[in-house]
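Private note to self, pasted from the team thread so I don't lose it. C-alpha cells:
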C-alpha cells in the first residue's frame, strides 16, 4: 500500500514538473516590432495625410516606395490626379510638378512630405536616446518618440502598430503644445517586397509608377531598332535648336513600330515610325499641309504630322510651341 502511494506521488511530481518545462514565456510585442523595423529593407504603402495646421489645412495621399535608402513619393490630390512626384536616387532628389510639367532638383525640402515616410519614424525611434513611450490600446501598440529635427509644428510623433500583424497603421505628429499637427494612415502596406530599381531614377520621375510598371513600352538603344521592329529607321538630320534625343521606345506587344522622343524643356516631339499599307495613311491623313505631309490637331491639343519616307509611315506628334515651319524642316531632313 505504501509502495503504491509513493509511486502515485512520484508520477504526479513528474507530470507537474513536465508541465512547468513546457510552459513558454510570451515574447514582448514591442521587441518584435523593433526587430521588424530593424530588418526592414523595402516597403510600399499608400499614406493618407491629413494636416491640421490652420495655415495649411488639407488632405492628400502619398503613394510610397522605399528600398535601401532610396525612395519615391507620388503625391496625389483628393481627386486622384498627380500633384508632384519625388524621386530620391540615393544622392539627389528630383521633383516633378505636374501642374507646370517641370522637373527640379530639390534644394529646399520643405514641400516634400518626408515626415510621412515610415522610415522617418524609424530614424527617430532608433536615435531617440531612450526618450520612448510605449503603451497598449485595444487594437494597437503605441510607440511615441521625439522628432530629431523638431520644430514648433512637428515636436514628437506616435506610431500605432496593429496587434494582429504588428504592421504600422497610423502615425500622429504632435506640435510643441501637444496638439495634433498631422495624422497619417497607412494602407496596403507591404513589408520587404521586390521593387523595380527603375522607380528610383531621374528618368522615371514624370510617370506614375502604375503606368511605368504596367506599360509594355521599353526603352532601347537606337542601334537595336531593327532587332525589335524589323525596321531600318530614318533619322532627322535637322533638329530645332536645343532639342535632344531623350529616348527610343518600342512596344513589346506591338513590335512593328518605334518612337524617337526629342525634348527641350516643356516642348516634346515624338517621331513614331512603322510599316503600314499605303491606304492606311490616306484614311488617317487629316488635311494636306504640304506635298506628302498631312496635318491634324488631336482633341487634347497635340499636333500630328503624317508622311511617308522610304516606305515607312512617319507620325510626328508635337506638344508645346514648336512651329509648323520647324516640323517641315525636320520632315524634309529625314534620311
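Design output:
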Amino acid at each position: 500500500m505504501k509502495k503504491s502511494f509513493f509511486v502515485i506521488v512520484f508520477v504526479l511530481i513528474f507530470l507537474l514538473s513536465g508541465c512547468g518545462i513546457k510552459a513558454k514565456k510570451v515574447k514582448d510585442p514591442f521587441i518584435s516590432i523593433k526587430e521588424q523595423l530593424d530588418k526592414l529593407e523595402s516597403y510600399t504603402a499608400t499614406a493618407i495625410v491629413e494636416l491640421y495646421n490652420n495655415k495649411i489645412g488639407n488632405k492628400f495621399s502619398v503613394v510610397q516606395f522605399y528600398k535601401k535608402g532610396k525612395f519615391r513619393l507620388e503625391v496625389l490630390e483628393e481627386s486622384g490626379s498627380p500633384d508632384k512626384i519625388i524621386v530620391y536616387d540615393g544622392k539627389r532628389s528630383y521633383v516633378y510638378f505636374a501642374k507646370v510639367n517641370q522637373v527640379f532638383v530639390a534644394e529646399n525640402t520643405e514641400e516634400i512630405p518626408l515626415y510621412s515616410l515610415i522610415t522617418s519614424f524609424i530614424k527617430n525611434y532608433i536615435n531617440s536616446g531612450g526618450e520612448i513611450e510605449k503603451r497598449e490600446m485595444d487594437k494597437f501598440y503605441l510607440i511615441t518618440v521625439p522628432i530629431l529635427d523638431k520644430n514648433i509644428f512637428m515636436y514628437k510623433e506616435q506610431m500605432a502598430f496593429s496587434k494582429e500583424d504588428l504592421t504600422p497603421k497610423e502615425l500622429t505628429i504632435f506640435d510643441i503644445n501637444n496638439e495634433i499637427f498631422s495624422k497619417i494612415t497607412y494602407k496596403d502596406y507591404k513589408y520587404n517586397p521586390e521593387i523595380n530599381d527603375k522607380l528610383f531614377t531621374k528618368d522615371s520621375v514624370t510617370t506614375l509608377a502604375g503606368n511605368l510598371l504596367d506599360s509594355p513600352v521599353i526603352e532601347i538603344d537606337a542601334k537595336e531598332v531593327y532587332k525589335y521592329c524589323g525596321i531600318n529607321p530614318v533619322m532627322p538630320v535637322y533638329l530645332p535648336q536645343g532639342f535632344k534625343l531623350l529616348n527610343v521606345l518600342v512596344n513589346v506587344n506591338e513590335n512593328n513600330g518605334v518612337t524617337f522622343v526629342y525634348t527641350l524643356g516643356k516642348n516634346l516631339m515624338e517621331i513614331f515610325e512603322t510599316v503600314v499599307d499605303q491606304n492606311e495613311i490616306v484614311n488617317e491623313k487629316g488635311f494636306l499641309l504640304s506635298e506628302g505631309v498631312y496635318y491634324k490637331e488631336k482633341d487634347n491639343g497635340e499636333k500630328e504630322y503624317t508622311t511617308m519616307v522610304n516606305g515607312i509611315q512617319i507620325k510626328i506628334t508635337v506638344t508645346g510651341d514648336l512651329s509648323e515651319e520647324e516640323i517641315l524642316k525636320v520632315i524634309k531632313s529625314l534620311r
